[in-house]
Fold this protein.
Amino acid sequence: MSTAPRRRLTPDQRRAQLLAVGAELFAAHPYEAVLMEEVAERAGVSRALLYRHFPGKHELFAAVYRQAADRLLAATRLDPAATLVQQLAQGLDAHLDYFVANRHAVLAANRVLAGDPVVQTIMAEELDALRTRLLAVLPLAGEDARATVSTVLKSWLVFVQVLCVDWLTEPTCSRSELRDVCIGAVLGALRPLLPVDPAPGWDGSWDGS
């Protein structure tokens, strides 16, 4: 493999380039198969320069995953003009798009690095941000209801995460079925807690309309 010609970049530009190369490799290969030497070669930099930006593979992966989480949150801003089902479907589709395209990275974060505090903190912060957004669009009857619904959403988001990771490992249903199971699970859990039905007419499947 030939080495790319080295370009003069600012430190921020170089970091962005290394993150892009890292994201590509972590998406294409299992975590164990990604070598820092290959990252440096693909980026056209010395290993010494790479290690100045990222002391090791763990730090590079964490930075890649942080960037992915930030982009996923940006892609899942809930539209208040849309129905709850539409908002849930949009958010789930954005995440499933990423999970499918970056299967190895998702499995690394949830399996290989399941006990890593840095990666787990990134995940927890993303789930908390999603829970806050969902609370903002639900018809809550008061603070007591908010606390209860918040707890339900926290558990549901973990359920979705585990279910989707298992699906990546062994897809026992279609992607649309997986999304509908996730939507149905949260609607079933929320309906007894809300003053009005959050999804009147929901028949258990989302057709995109």
About this structure: The two ends are 48 Å apart (CA to CA). The first helix runs from residue 11 to 28. The mean pLDDT is 91.
